[in-house]
Amino acid sequence: MALWDNRKHTDSLVTEIIPMVMQTLPTPQTAAKPPALDTVIHRRQTRPVSVGNITIGGGHPVVVQSMINEDTLDLEGSVAGIRRLHEIGCEIVRVTVPSMAHAKALAQIKQKLIQTYQEVPLVADVHHNGMKIALEVAKHVDKVRINPGLYVFEKPKSDRTEYTQAEFEQIGAKIKETLAPLVISLRDQGKAMRIGVNHGSLAERMLFTYGDTPEGMVESALEFIRICESLDFRNLVISLKASRVPVMLAAYRLMVRRMDELGMDYPLHLGVTEAGDGEYGRIKSTAGIGTLLAEGIGDTIRVSLTEAPEKEIPVCYSILQALGLRKTMVEYVACPSCGRTLFNLEDVLHEVREATKHLTGLDIAVMGCIVNGPGEMADADYGYVGKQPGYISLYRGREEIKKVPEDQGVEELINLIKADDRWIDP
């Protein structure tokens, strides 16, 4: 009987304890799903700045620029150079104006363009105490680019060890006095200015105060911005170029941070200056420009190559297309080839590209085998896949449309694009 009573007591005790224990356990919760990864580049919001019939910033597509290398006094050569660039997609063209004669020549260049071709947005590059030149050229172009480090020449002193605050402010006042007429002219004409800082040409007092640093570049730009704002002029585009990619990246990132702190929303012109030529020049430019664009920074770009200016434009568009910021040509998706590849992938890709490169807005995949083909090219408009020896399978999106002999593959791909009414004769 005692045993039974103890059992009863134990059972009663357990019955009382279990609910208490259960009440102290945390309430089970469904694990939160991780946020979806964003694959869209969100561009920094900037004010729109008009340059002729092109708008930089304000949510407009990233604008492509370049610069002719003809002497501006060569009227025919300059008109031809501007036209060549514009015809292949360069939306704004820059010219250099080292003298008053060059500035006046731009009036004739602009007129010849209108008579023989069409209006093209033009930017004039002004350096070295160029106030009078800038005032003249501002009558004939849509934007004037000035370099803060060179616009007012500061004669260096060999024995200088520092700049006093008074000296710094005195030169700042001289800069405002020299810059104001140009700002007022551009403001009253509804034209634009690029404040183009170069790492290699900072003013001496900026070097003494901030060193050869991104901070010096940013402060140089901000000094000129404040002068423009004090005169109620805000049609500004800012650039902070350097030949070293890490310096260029740091300068633009710092500029964005400082502008955000100051409530400024000016569009940015991106470039790696003096990038060189060939493959390395292209890679270097892409590393700098592409990195910032991927962060949402940048509204207009120029790839600076030591080559014919026309060679710069395809690089610009390739950068923009790779990032999904503009679609101006066919996007080709192609596997790297391996032992499973059923045809000469390099030759076929070249053949497909040559036949379709004039089209715009299409994605075309060329895949060597069936293993990865349909999956890797799922987002393509059309697919060209080696599915069995001697034959090509053609796809529209994910759907296999037909199988054709290998020697008819490219021809049948073109026929498929034509059937969808997406073909344009070259």
Automatic annotation (TrEMBL):
Binding residues for [4Fe-4S] cluster: 335, 338, 369, 376
Cofactor(s) required for function per UniProt: [4Fe-4S] cluster
Reactions it catalyzes: (2E)-4-hydroxy-3-methylbut-2-enyl diphosphate + 2 oxidized [2Fe-2S]-[ferredoxin] + H2O = 2-C-methyl-D-erythritol 2,4-cyclic diphosphate + 2 reduced [2Fe-2S]-[ferredoxin] + H(+)
Enzyme Commission number, as recorded: 1.17.7.1
Superkingdom to which the source organism belongs: Bacteria
Pathway(s) served: Isoprenoid biosynthesis; isopentenyl diphosphate biosynthesis via DXP pathway; isopentenyl diphosphate from 1-deoxy-D-xylulose 5-phosphate: step 5/6
Residues annotated as domain IspG C-terminal: 331-418
Keyword 4Fe-4S in annotation: yes
Keywords in alphabetical order: 4Fe-4S, Iron, Iron-sulfur, Isoprene biosynthesis, Metal-binding, Oxidoreductase
An example Gene Ontology biological process: isopentenyl diphosphate biosynthetic process, methylerythritol 4-phosphate pathway
InterPro entries, per the entry: Dihydropteroate_synth-like_sf, IspG_bac, IspG_bac-typ, IspG_C, IspG_TIM, NO2/SO3_Rdtase_4Fe4S_sf
Enzyme type, top EC level: oxidoreductase
A Pfam family recorded for this sequence: GcpE_C
Cofactor note: Binds 1 [4Fe-4S] cluster.
Domain IspG TIM-barrel: 46-317
A GO molecular-function annotation: 4 iron, 4 sulfur cluster binding
HAMAP family with a match to the protein in the record: IspG
Function: Converts 2C-methyl-D-erythritol 2,4-cyclodiphosphate (ME-2,4cPP) into 1-hydroxy-2-methyl-2-(E)-butenyl 4-diphosphate.
Similarity comment: family membership: Belongs to the IspG family.
Full protein name: 4-hydroxy-3-methylbut-2-en-1-yl diphosphate synthase (ferredoxin)
Organism for this UniProt entry: Coleofasciculus chthonoplastes PCC 7420
The encoding gene: ispG
